[in-house]
Amino acid sequence: MTLEDLKIKIAPFLEDKLAINTENISISQFKGGYSNLTYLIKAEDKEFILRRPPLGKKISKAHDMIREFKVLEALQKAGYKKIPKPILSCEDEAVIGSPFFIMEKVDGLILRNQIPEGINLSSRFFQDLSKNTIDAMLELHQLELKDSGLLNLGKPDGYVERQVSGWSERYLKAKTDEIPAMEFAIEWLKSNCPTSKAVSFLNNDFKYDNIVLRDESNPEIKAILDWEMATVGDPLMDLGTSLAYWAEKEDAEILKMFNLTHPDGNMTRSEVINYYGKKSGLDMSNMLFYYVFGVFKVGVIAQQIYQRHMQGFAPDPRFAGLIHVVKACGKTAKNSIETGKI
């Protein structure tokens, strides 16, 4: 679907549901993401964000737009303020060809895989940003679950085992190349699942490029984006995924493409673990498992997108190189298992 097609289809819906004059509506697409499609809609003096699934094969709950909308509504009810305000959702695929939802646009700075041109970010900026990021995660993990409805968005019992089993199955279904290290990680994870009674609401994609900051002089967090994989379960699974994206200077260059955590000033993974542990009071002795799982999961996500690219559903040229991310994740996971280092 072209942007012009989307504009023609969405305009009557916006006029009907939001009473907006769409005579001069404009739509543009954000190009940075690897998963669901995100668009900026400008109409009258208002700006909105539209989220819809990617074209082609759907992958589990990760592309359930109505569920993501309900997550934002429940977070709003629970008092978590670091989210874009949900506005409306639509399950009728006849409107634009898929379910979608609309939320407010939050203005601010989003850090992708490179520091934007013309911006100088100090080590103090990154020091504060890394602390703010973990504090925002801790705040999320301490939310009330029952009255807000957040508890209804997941099944905490057996969560860790289901995640290991589920992501292992996804990898094998999306497999295109023989990568022994990834299958080595599967067997290790299945044999080393920790038992945990901690239950929290999880974002499951908590990294810098999903965070809207105040501006280049102030890394205050205004909003966390992309709640498509959010659920209820062991909070250290959320931390483990964030650590998988938390690249350091010495890491492979290809693993630095998802998160600007390697410039000077950022906490190291070890410092993140210590900081989170002191603030949460949780037992951090099994963090190797959670980190390895996170690295494996990142590899599976890359594998799924790469498979869709090979099948012709995701033509973005960036996706052709994702098989190298899968291989790097497998190597990192296997090395961590064998050395015990995170």
Task: List the topology elements.
Elements (H helix, E strand, L loop, with lengths): L2 H16 L7 E5 L6 E7 L2 E7 L12 H14 L7 E5 L9 E5 L18 H19 L17 H16 L5 H12 L8 E3 L8 E5 L2 E7 L6 E3 L1 H11 L23 H12 L6 H24 L11 H18 L3
Antiparallel strand pairs: 1-2, 2-3, 3-5, 4-5, 6-9, 7-8
Helix pairs in contact: 3-7, 4-5, 4-8, 5-8, 5-9, 6-8, 8-9
Structure, explained:
It comes from Belliella aquatica. It holds the Pfam family APH. This is Phosphotransferase family protein. With 342 residues, the chain is of the alpha+beta class. It has two domains: 3-104, Phosphorylase Kinase, domain 1 (2-Layer Sandwich), CATH 3.30.200; 123-339, Alpha-Beta Complex (Aminoglycoside 3'-phosphotransferase, Chain: A, domain 2), CATH 3.90.1200. Helices cover 42% and strands 14% of the residues. The chain has helices spanning 3-18, 65-78, 123-141, 159-174, 180-191, 235-245, 269-280, 287-310, 322-339; strands at residues 26-30, 37-43, 46-52, 86-90, 100-104, 200-202, 211-215, 218-224, 231-233. A hairpin with a 2-residue loop joins strand 7 (211-215) and strand 8 (218-224). It is globular, with a radius of gyration of 20 Å. The termini are far apart.
